Target: Carbonic anhydrase
Amino acid sequence: MAPWGYSKENGPATWHKDCPIANTGVRQSPIDLITTGQTCAKYDSNLKPVIVSYPAFSEATFLNNGHSVQFQPSAGNLSELSGGPLTKKYKFEQFHFHWGNNDSEGSEHRVNGKMYPAELHLVHWNSESPNFSSFQEAVGSNDPHALCVLGFFLKVGAENASLKPITDLLSKVKNAGSSVSFPGKFDLKAVLPETLTDYYTYDGSLTTPPLAECVKWIVFKEPIEVSTAQMEAFRAVDDGHGKPITGNYRPPCPLHTRTVAASFK
Ligand SMILES: NS(=O)(=O)c1ccc2oc(=S)[nH]c2c1
Ligand SMILES: [Zn+2]
Model:
């Protein structure tokens, strides 16, 4: 089967052929985060702020893998995550984005059915588990919380100076399969909101094949602003079939018996 993607021929509705869990899984991601009514997110006063320790990355690769653009620091990076719903310390692995071809679509998670133009995913793996000692092993471990992904919605507004070094690089990885070594240092902390207190959290999966059900999801309420020009830069990145990647987002999946917790009222 052709490698998976987001077109009619190889998109989310076809992924079950290689990944049966797409249709049989009961903790698939993304989901629609409902804030009122029966199955709504439930406030949990025990949920603490998320703690990130992100020293500026000094060595990283920025690549276009045909279905997203990904920032991958060298293995020696010391960036860590803890707090929030987590009981362990997680190591940073990579960040990447999902976006649409217009401002009314693009995010993977939704809030009461509303999509944002894009979503940033910061991917981490549990570095204190005795069962695995790398990201790839974590993905294959069947551990329900092997990974923790922080999701941030992007909305169109003022230019985001902290993300500019990334969006300015998009033209350099226009072709699928292309990558560049990231010039200089990148301060990821500066991209994020000051306080990481208000978020939704639930047990889910990778939103792309292999769709492994090993992710503790933390999706922040407060979107990050980027300019229209910065959004357009994402929409000019190619998918390897001579077309721009547009709409590299999976539709929401059934909640089943899961509950979503909110760290805010
Ligand atoms: N989109 S996502 O759920 O954050 C995500 C994160 C890490 C991944 O590693 C593989 S392989 N597929 C992945 C999807
Ligand atoms: Zn993602």
